[in-house]
Design a protein that fits this description.
Elements lengths: L2 H8 L3 H4 L8 E4 L7 H9 L7 E4 L18 E5 L4 H8 L3 E3 L7 H4 L8 E6 L7 E3 L7 H7 L2 E7 L6 E2 L2 E3 L5 E5 L13 H11 L7 E4 L3 H8 L8 E2 L3 E2 L1 H9 L14 E3 L1 E2 L3 H7 L5 E3 L2 H4 L2 H4 L5 E6 L2 E3 L4 E2 L2 E2 L2 E2 L6 H10 L4 E5 L3 E2 L4 E2 L1 E2 L17 E4 L2 E4 L5 H10 L6 H12 L6
Parallel strand pairs: 1-2, 1-5, 2-3, 3-4, 5-7, 7-10, 8-16, 11-12, 11-17, 13-15, 14-16, 17-22, 18-25, 22-26
Antiparallel strand pairs: 6-9, 18-19, 20-21, 23-24, 26-27
Helix pairs in contact: 7-8, 8-9, 14-15
Length: 434
């Protein structure tokens, strides 16, 4: 049987494909912009046919119909990274969170994360019968290998991406041809605080550096401040439209990278239709599984690696909380620690934690004497390197606890420096001098 005949025989409707899911099984789904929306809707529409089905996924852009209250009791969600639409699910106890580095997810699938059914989104097959995983490579291949049943939505509007993204028709059990626009993520323009942070972070980036950035106002502000740099590269868990702009201008060209020279390396992207069109059949961008992209030993092969991540709060020891607000799970660790460690191992590497100095409209300092009670330490004081706010940069690596506290107070918001100075004087029995 040639692949085209095999493809035709495997074509299914969503309502038919989900009949292969059994009570008590675990379904591993694609995430972010590549979440399989037709299967999610079909499961929600037929939820009463299922009991105790575990669904593993990470972030889902837009509305996930399986989160609806009428699905409670039929599906249980588990994730190691939350967003706005999934926090409520966990808080309602319709699912649970497990701490894990993103890079470890592929090795956990099939063991710690059971995988009876894998559900992902790809492009239609190319001339050789291979589908591309498009904008989200991450843990997809591991799930497809481990699953007893593989359901794929072959979306005509999914970009065909290069790297290690190909899945053959022979690996798929149920194929759902479709054509719908990927969910987009529109980012707000950075404000003055974020732009100031961006300028400080950019001062740490040398010509020829390779960058890892997250997504949001601060990474966008950093990218806006890099227009005068030369020959930058990208090796990042993800990127957004700001990287696209710098690639078009030639600032990011990867010409001085020491690993994957000339290529921007990622494991997934989220953004606008323009970004998705940009990576479509673009040989300058490579997508690889997350256990490769986020591996610190791989990251460290990039000379002049600069990792820029954000957090929720930092204490005077330099402990960083990025995932929780007290005991409330807010997001997840993603690749923060892996890139910090990878950058620290790289020749001339730097790792930056960037954040506004305050939260809650200026009512709360993000630099605190102690982390909020119950908060998880994401980046330990032994791993932390640079902390950046709109008021400057504190280099903590190699600094004593007393010197760390002094440096952090200097980049805190002025309204909170007196209280921090009081704690400093209690702790170190010496007067704080700005």
């Amino acid at each position: 049987m040639n692949w085209k005949e095999e493809y035709r025989k495997k074509i299914s409707k969503p309502a038919e494909a989900i009949k292969s899911i059994r009570d008590g099984q675990c379904v591993v789904m694609g995430h972010a912009a590549a979440a399989p929306r037709l299967i999610q809707q079909a499961l929600a529409d037929h939820c009463e046919d299922y009991n105790d089905v575990l669904i593993y996924h990470m972030t889902t852009l837009g509305d996930n119909p399986c989160y609806k209250p009428h699905c409670f009791g039929h599906f249980r969600h588990v994730s190691n990274f939350l967003a706005a639409n999934s926090r409520e699910v966990i808080e309602r106890r319709e699912g649970d969170f497990f701490p894990a580095y993103f890079k470890d997810v592929p090795s956990m699938i099939g063991s710690d994360i059971p995988c009876d059914v894998a559900v992902f989104q790809t492009t239609p097959p190319n001339a050789e019968g291979y589908c591309s995983l498009g904008v989200s490579c991450d843990y997809a291949k591991a799930a497809i290998r481990a699953a007893k049943t593989v359901i794929i939505e072959t979306n005509e509007m999914m970009p065909f991406t290069y790297g290690d993204t190909l899945v053959h028709v022979s690996q798929i059990d149920h194929i759902i041809p479709c054509a719908y626009r990927l969910q987009e993520l529109q980012l707000p323009a950075p404000g003055e605080v974020e732009l100031a942070i961006g300028r400080h972070c950019a001062s740490l980036v040398a010509d020829g550096a390779t960058l890892q950035l997250g997504i949001g106002a601060i990474p966008d502000a950093v990218l806006r401040s890099l227009a005068d740099k030369n020959d930058l590269g990208i090796h990042s868990e993800m990127f957004s439209g700001g990287v696209m702009d710098l690639m078009r201008s030639g600032v990011v060209n990867g010409s001085r990278k020491t690993l994957h020279r000339g290529k921007a390396v990622v494991t997934f992207i989220m953004g606008t239709r323009e970004l998705y069109d940009f990576v479509d059949e673009n040989p300058d961008v490579e997508f690889h599984p997350v256990d490769y992209v986020n591996n610190p030993l791989v990251i460290a092969q990039n000379d002049r690696m600069v990792s820029i991540n954000s957090c929720l709060e930092v204490d005077l020891q330099g402990q960083v909380a990025s995932e929780t607000i007290g005991i409330r799970q807010y997001s997840g660790i993603g690749g923060q620690v892996d890139f910090i460690r990878g950058a620290s191992l790289a020749r001339e590497g730097k790792a930056v934690i960037a954040m506004p100095s305050t939260a809650a409209g200026g009512k709360i300092s993000r630099i605190k004497p102690f982390l909020t009670e119950g908060a998880a330490v994401s980046t330990s004081r032994n791993d932390v390197d640079y902390i950046c706010t709109e008021y400057g940069i504190a280099r903590l690596k190699g600094r004593t606890l007393q010197h760390r506290a002094e440096d952090l107070i200097r980049i805190a918001h002025p309204d909170f420096r007196p209280a921090l100075a009081e704690e400093y004087e209690r702790r170190f029995h010496t007067q704080y001098r700005d």
